[in-house]
Specification:
- The protein is of the alpha/beta class.
- Helix content is 23%, strand content 29%.
- It folds into two domains: 6-223, Spore Coat Polysaccharide Biosynthesis Protein SpsA, Chain A, CATH 3.90.550.10; 249-420, Hexapeptide repeat proteins (UDP N-Acetylglucosamine Acyltransferase, domain 1), CATH 2.160.10.10.
- The chain has a 19-stranded parallel β-sheet that branches. A seven-stranded mixed β-sheet has the order 5-4-1-6-10-7-11, with helices on both faces. Strands 26-29-32 form a three-stranded parallel β-sheet, with no helix packed on it.
- β8 and β9 form a beta hairpin.
- The longest helix has 24 residues, at 432-455.
- The radius of gyration is 31 Å and the shape is elongated.
- It binds uridine-diphosphate-N-acetylglucosamine and calcium ion.
- Residues 11-14, 54, 56, 78, 81-84, 86-87, 106-108, 140-141, 153, 155, 169-172, 198-200, 225 line the site of uridine-diphosphate-N-acetylglucosamine.
Length: 456
C-alpha cells in the first residue's frame, strides 16, 4: 500500500460557552499548552503536508496561539458557527491543489493517540470515521453499521429510539479522500433538528454514490472532549497521571511522582532524578543523569547530563545548562547559557548572560540586565570568580580568569586575569563600637528618667 499524503483540519471555532470564559475554549491550558496544541501535536505525527485550523470565537487569539504552537499551520476563519460541515467548508480553499487524505480533528479533544490516527489515515475506505463504544452514549452521534461497513451517522437530536440504543458513537474524528470531501461538503444541507451543516452527513452521501465508508474504533478515553472547567481539571489529572507513568516507564527516577507536573512536550532522559514538587512548564529537556532537586520550576530550558538543579531553583525560557553545571537554591536563570562546570550555588539572578566553563558565581550575584527600557547582556569568561553580592550592570563583560570582589558594583568591562573592586574602601575606628554603645545606652536611660518625672 502506498502511503498517501495527509492534510490536517482542526476544528476550533466553537465558543465553548460552558467554560464560562472570555478565553476561547481551545486556548485553555492542559499540560502547560493550549488545548488546541494537543490536537496539533497528535496530528503532526501523521507528518501532514498541510495543517489548517478553523477558528471563529476569539479567532485573533487562536491565530496567535496557533502561530506559536505550529508556525506552519494556517488558520481559516469561520465567522458564524453553522456546524461542523460548514467549518470544514471554510478550510477547503486552503486545500486547493492538495490530493490525498484529509484528517479532521477537534481542537477540544486532546487525547487522540498517534496509533489511532495512523490506523485511521492508512485505512483504504473512502471515508473513515473514528468511533468508540460509549459507556453512556448520551448525546453523541450514532454510527449505523451495515454489512460490516459504515452506513451513516445519525445525530442524537435526529435519531429515533432504535438508533439511540446503538452504543457505537462518533468521536468526530474523520478521514476522507480530499477530492471526495470537497465534493460532498459542498453538497451538505442543514435540514435537520439543529439546523446545522453536519460534517457527519458526508458518510450517507458517500454511500449513496457507492463509495466505501468504515469505522476505526478506539478507547473511549481517547475521545474525551473538554466542555467545562471540571472536565478540564479532570483531563489535567489524567494527562499528568499518564505523563508520570511514561516518565517512570522510560527510566526516570521520581521519589514522589504524584507531586511532579509535566507539560505536553517535556523530555527527560533515563536515569535523570526528579525530586518532589517539581513543575515542568513547556519546552523543557533534561538529559540523562541530570538531577532536579525538590521544589524547582522549569520552563523553556535545557539541562545537560550531570547537572544538578535546586532545591528551590527557577529556570526560565532560554536557560541552557551545560554538563555538570550546579544551580543551587533560590537561583533564577533566564535566557542564559551556563557552560560546562559552572557553579552558581545560592540566591542569584542570571539573565541575558553567557558564563564560561568552570566559572564560579558567588551568592547574591545579580546580572542587572534591565535599565527600565532595554535588556542588556552580561558576558563572563571561563574560570572566572564572581565574588558574593556582585552587581553586574549590563552591558558588561568579565574576562576569563577574572575576579570581582564581594559586594562590587561592576559597571565597566573587566579584562582577562584582572581583579575588579567596585565598592567603598573599608574604614576601621578602634574602640568606637564600645563608646558608641555607651553613649546610646546613656541617652536611652536619660529619656526614660525624664518621662517618669513627667508622669508623677
Ligand atoms: C459532534 C458530532 C457528533 C459527535 C460529537 C463528538 C457533528 C454534526 N456531530 O457533535 O456526531 O458524536 O461531535 O464530540 O459533527 N465546531 C466548529 N464550527 C462549528 C461547529 C463546531 O469549529 O460551526 C467545532 C467545535 O469547536 C468543536 C467541534 O467542532 O471543537 C465539535 O463541535 P460540537 O458543537 O461540540 O459538536 P457536537 O454537537 O458535540
Ligand atoms: Ca462536543
Amino acid at each position: 500500500m502506498t502511503e498517501q499524503a495527509v492534510a490536517l483540519v482542526v476544528l476550533a471555532a466553537g465558543q465553548g460557552s460552558r467554560m464560562l470564559s472570555d478565553l476561547p475554549k481551545v486556548l485553555h491550558r492542559l499540560g502547560g499548552v493550549p488545548l488546541v496544541g494537543h490536537a496539533l501535536a497528535a496530528g503532526r505525527t501523521l507528518d501532514p503536508e498541510r495543517v489548517i485550523v478553523v477558528a471563529g470565537h476569539g479567532a485573533e487569539a487562536v491565530t496567535r496561539a496557533v502561530g506559536k504552537l505550529d508556525p506552519d499551520a494556517q488558520v481559516a476563519l469561520q465567522e458564524q458557527q453553522l456546524g461542523t460541515g460548514h467549518a470544514v467548508a471554510q478550510a477547503l480553499p486552503m486545500l486547493d491543489g492538495f490530493a490525498g487524505k484529509v484528517v479532521v480533528l477537534y481542537g477540544d479533544t486532546p487525547f487522540i493517540g498517534a496509533d489511532t490516527l495512523a490506523a485511521l489515515a492508512s485505512h483504504t475506505a473512502d471515508v473513515v470515521v473514528l468511533g468508540f463504544e460509549a459507556a453512556e452514549p448520551g448525546r453523541y452521534g450514532r454510527l449505523v453499521v451495515r454489512n460490516g461497513g459504515l452506513d451513516r451517522i445519525v445525530e442524537f437530536k435526529d435519531a429515533d429510539e432504535a438508533t439511540r440504543r446503538i452504543a457505537l458513537c462518533n468521536s468526530g474524528v474523520m478521514a476522507a479522500d480530499a477530492a471526495l470531501l470537497r465534493d460532498l461538503v459542498g453538497r451538505l444541507g442543514n435540514d435537520n433538528a439543529a439546523g446545522e451543516y453536519y460534517l457527519t452527513d458526508v458518510v450517507g452521501l458517500a454511500r449513496a454514490e457507492g463509495r466505501t465508508a468504515a469505522v476505526v474504533t478506539c478507547d473511549e478515553a481517547e475521545t474525551l472532549g473538554i466542555n467545562t472547567r471540571a472536565e478540564l481539571a479532570a483531563a489535567e489529572a489524567q494527562f499528568q497521571a499518564r505523563a508520570r507513568e511514561d516518565a517512570l516507564d522510560s527510566g526516570v527516577t521520581m521519589s514522589d511522582p504524584a507531586t511532579v507536573w509535566f507539560a505536553l512536550d517535556t523530555v527527560i532522559g533515563r536515569d535523570a532524578i526528579i525530586g518532589q514538587n517539581v513543575v515542568f512548564g513547556p519546552g523543557v529537556t533534561i538529559e540523562s543523569g541530570a538531577e532536579i532537586l525538590p521544589f524547582c520550576h522549569l520552563e523553556g530550558c535545557h539541562v545537560s547530563s550531570g547537572a544538578t538543579v535546586g532545591p528551590f531553583a527557577r529556570l526560565r525560557p532560554g536557560a541552557e545548562l551545560g554538563g555538570d553545571v550546579h544551580v543551587g537554591n533560590f537561583v533564577e536563570v533566564k535566557n542564559a547559557v551556563l557552560d560546562e562546570g559552572v557553579k552558581v550555588g545560592h540566591l542569584t539572578y542570571l539573565g541575558d548572560a553567557h558564563v564560561g566553563e568552570r566559572t564560579n558565581i558567588g551568592a547574591g550575584t545579580v546580572t542587572c540586565n534591565y535599565d527600565g527600557v532595554g535588556k542588556h547582556r552580561t558576558e563572563i569568561g571561563a574560570d572566572a570568580f564572581i565574588g558574593s553580592d556582585t552587581m553586574l550592570v549590563a552591558p558588561v563583560r568579565i574576562g576569563a580568569r577574572a575576579l570581582t570582589g564581594s559586594g562590587s558594583v561592576i559597571t565597566q568591562d573587566v579584562p582577562d586575569d584582572a581583579l575588579a573592586l567596585g565598592r567603598a574602601r573599608q574604614v576601621v575606628k578602634p574602640g568606637l563600637a564600645t563608646r558608641m554603645m555607651q553613649a546610646l545606652r546613656g541617652a536611652k536611660a536619660n529619656a526614660a528618667a525624664g518621662s517618669a518625672r513627667g508622669n508623677g
